[in-house]
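Cross-check.
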Amino acid sequence: MSKPILPMTVEALGAHVNSIATNCADDVIITKHCELRMEERGITRRETWTCLRRGSVCSSPEYNPDFGTWEFKFQEPPPRDVVCVVVAVQLDPTNNTIYALTVYEV
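Predicted model, tokenized:
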């Protein structure tokens, strides 16, 4: 089976995450693993949400066939690049869910 092609540009993917994090917070799921890493690393929910709302894609999106998601690193540009959030997105028109998988300090 061939690897699927990202159905939008990387810039559009970043804008998609920004838009959902800003306008549809119920569609953003902070995983338990992410919450544990936030606590362990002293990263606040506000820092995580700010990154999702203002950041951009900073790694090549990789398709995860097990979950049908595109996974990538997301962070704000310097000097605001405090944290990096690893994100998984389902790019299904009927499901705009974003999963924050983990987070770490830059």
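The radius of gyration is 13 Å. The first helix runs from residue 10 to 23. Passed to J.P. for a second look.
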